[in-house]
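Below is the data:
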Amino acid sequence: MKVNTVIKGDVVKALKKLPDATFQTVIADPPYYNVLEDEAWDTQWKTPEAYLAWCEVWVGECLRVLKEDGLCFIFGQLGKREHTFIHLMSRLCHQHAFHDLIIWDRAVGYNERRDSFTPQYEMILVLRKSEDVKFNKDAVRLPYDAQTITAYLRDPRYKDLEARKSHLEKGKFATNILRVPSLKGLTKEKCGHPSQKPLALITKLVACASDENDLVLDPFLGSGTTAIAAEGQGRQWMGIECNAAYTQMARQRLKKFRASLS
């Protein structure tokens, strides 16, 4: 099995060729179903039931190839129109072990609604295979600013100030609400994919759920963000992508990223 490569092809067929319990982490950003109405890949299912049935198959394959202590992250979105993900989460949590539900706070809203609040978040369902999972909380700490550290060190309840200072300088543990600005307008990182996720967000997922040299799978590689996040942190990776244009986009981004390291 060749690693650090993009497999061009159907996700289910490609997954079925991979061996059991191979990947430490799976990061999946699949079509959301009729959210991007101008994209054929997001509107290809005639009914929600057909979409849900397809998702059950590829998620099942992702859990099969996941290691026993691995985590599988699945992106989704809720809204008045784009609410199929809530049904998918229910089904998947009946079939697999629930681990967490992460809220990606996009920092800014999108698609103003006439009769409801402006959406500002997406969701990441986290599934596992066993109770004993690899999770590195220190990898996703959030730094305190100098003023906050100084203020906390004045708290008389802490007798060992050196230990307290060491803890504060490491930063606070992240919650399951991850605030990472979405890629808007002329953001330099944008490369043309309509549902491209920020590198900073995917980097957090890779960091917390894998160690150096672990193998990360992205079954919907798209623009290649997961590959870059993995390589940038010393992980190995494999991506699956059925769209030829996106496959080329991912390879070009990787080429540019690798060149920037040399």
In short: The chain has a mean pLDDT of 92.
